[in-house]
Automatic annotation (TrEMBL):
Pfam families: CAF1
Ranges of Low complexity composition bias in the record: 411-423
Full protein name: Target of EGR1 protein 1
Keyword Acetylation part of the UniProt annotation: yes
Location relative to the cell: Nucleus speckle; Nucleus, Nucleolus
Biological source species: Kryptolebias marmoratus
Presence of the UniProt keyword Acetylation in the record: yes
Cited function: Inhibits cell growth rate and cell cycle. Induces CDKN1A expression as well as TGF-beta expression. Mediates the inhibitory growth effect of EGR1. Involved in the maturation of snRNAs and snRNA 3'-tail processing.
Domain of life: Eukaryota
Domain C3H1-type intervals: 276-304
């Protein structure tokens, strides 16, 4: 019998299917079905490096694109995470069956791998021995021998993803999508306008960036991936347990049995604990998701504690403003130096949302975070690449979510494998699952899962606030966020559109004829 547990603020274990060269052909049918039957697909990557970090945050967006192109042409994708979210219409609103895959890749051409990227990835469990011995081979740029739409290989998988015409979800995704284009599609064009024109046709159902969603729609205190995911999960769990009306995200996973279960690793995301009696929090990590001291920092990098501290600061701020308003109505004067940001970490103040209880004149959007000095540290979005937190650090500081916390209670949301062909185990081996609970590897796969969760939660919340939840005919996914890719340090996103003044690239036109079987 299949088991499904409603998500609450308990530990959640996410099954991640480990895909490598030895089992790629065997898992191919399940992968293709998961992609074709999904409602949207979230992707994430691990990269061998990024090159010059300052260039990736150049003032000119065109200059940024040139730097990203150079990185994508000279570096490679080491692993690819794919999370397929399928909305289950026959169940409660916003219930998704999620299948998560982590593909270990090996570029067959020469590429640069940066020492700091190696150090970061090794610290977080990436197995380079496994990559070089079992990585799925691929060649970058334009097709080199064999058709992209035939056979069992990564480029054919990317072609199937395009043919599926599903919404693509990324987090801080400009670098991700450029690497995907260069690695599995064609040589990147020289101009940004040509690139965005190509993307608009490659993904007709839209590209969504959850970094943009968290910054401009949810307006979270911080927006690096781990923080955004845990905050969304915590708020969703509170809504479920409180019994409040409106849609809540419910997640179900396949239960894998038999030989299939040997390919599955489990990532645990424990429940948020109390902040009482906990060590001091590193304010740098709290704001940006990375710290120049890394693991040597004596202060806490626990994202759960950071979220609880932010919530406490926000509540204290509301109470203080309420007292000030009452005092003002009573004829008193507001004390000098009072601020709506009192109690907040200094380096977060410019990224905090303004309380909706404030009068209209005070409801101003928070300014973008200033760009600190360049650094070679990495951020926490898990991909050796991000220009995260509007910081000059575009490499991947990354701490895998819920690392070294596999000793907490074991709880899992499960469901039938459905069309994927995965087996269903009536009595899953809890001991085996606990033993295999993995917090160091499959980061690209788990990061893709987190990215998809943020998207699903934010969409449910948006519909609830708009009063359209539960309608039989729902509007398209996040219409206010479609084709808007987050740009670090910029007040506006990159719009993925085909301008009347730009043409698609020749390589793309040829690819589209192959993908769709018709001339563009």
């Amino acid at each position: 019998m299949n088991r499904c547990e409603t998500e609450t603020n308990m530990s959640l274990i996410v099954p991640v299917i480990d895909v490598h060269n030895d089992n790629f052909k065997e898992l191919w049918p399940a992968l293709i079905i998961a992609i074709k039957t999904s409602s949207f697909i979230a992707l994430d990557t691990e990269l061998s490096g990024l090159g010059n970090r300052k260039s990736l945050l150049a003032e000119s967006i065109e200059d940024r694109f040139k730097a990203i192109c150079h990185a994508a042409r000279s570096r490679s994708i080491l692993s690819l995470g794919i999370a397929c979210y399928k909305k289950l219409d026959q169940k409660a609103a916003d219930t998704y069956l999620v299948q998560v895959y982590n593909l270990t890749l090996l570029c067959s051409e020469e590429y640069i791998i940066e020492p700091q990227s190696v150090q970061f990835l090794v610290q977080h469990g990436f197995d380079f021995n496994k990559q070089y011995s079992h990585g799925i081979p691929y060649c970058k740029g334009n097709n080199k021998g064999g058709a992209d739409d035939r056979g069992v290989h990564i480029r054919a998988l990317f072609t199937e993803l395009l043919r599926a015409r599903k919404p693509l979800v990324l987090h801080n995704g400009l670098i991700d999508i450029a690497f995907l284009y260069q690695s599995f599609y064609a040589h990147l064009p020289e101009r940004l306008a040509t690139f965005t024109a190509d993307l608009s046709e490659m993904f007709p159902d839209g590209i969504y960036d959850t970094k943009y969603v968290t910054e401009f729609e949810l307006r979270l205190t911080a927006s690096y991936l781990e923080y955004a995911y845990k905050k969304c999960k915590l708020d969703n769990s509170r809504c479920v347990t409180s019994g409040s009306t409106g849609p809540h995200v419910h997640i179900e996973f396949c239960q894998y049995s038999g030989h299939m279960s040997t390919y599955v690793d489990y990532r645990e995301c424990p429940a948020v604990a109390s902040s009482e009696g906990q060590p001091d929090i590193c304010q740098r990590f709290s704001a940006f998701g990375w710290c120049p001291n890394g693991t040597k920092c004596p202060l806490s990098h626990d994202t759960d504690l950071i979220i609880l501290q932010d919530e406490k600061c926000k509540e204290d701020k509301r109470k203080k403003r309420k007292r000030q308003r009452e005092k003002k109505r009573g004829g008193g004067e507001i004390t000098e130096g009072s601020s709506i940001f009192d109690g907040a970490p200094v380096n977060k103040k410019q990224n905090m949302e303004v309380d909706t209880e404030e009068p209209a004149g005070d409801q101003q959007a928070a300014a973008a975070e200033p760009l600190p000095d360049a650094t070679t540290q990495m951020d926490s979005d898990g991909n050796s690449k991000r220009a995260e937190g509007q910081d000059t650090n575009t490499a991947n500081e990354g701490n895998g979510t819920c690392e070294d916390k596999t000793d907490l209670p074991n709880s899992e949301t499960t469901a039938a494998a459905g069309e994927s062909g995965a087996g269903v185990d009536d009595k899953p081996d809890d001991a085996r699952r606990k033993k295999k609970a993995d917090t160091g590897t499959h980061r690209a796969g788990f990061d893709a899962y987190m990215t998809g969760y943020i998207f699903a939660y934010s969409w449910a919340l948006t519909r609830k606030e708009a009063g359209t939840a539960g309608e039989e005919t729902e509007p398209s996914w996040h219409p206010d966020c479609v084709n808007k890719i987050y740009l670090s340090g910029k007040a506006t996103p990159l719009n993925v559109v085909k301008s009347t003044f730009s043409k698609s690239s020749k390589a793309h036109v040829q690819k589209m004829e192959m993908v769709w079987g018709e001339k563009m």
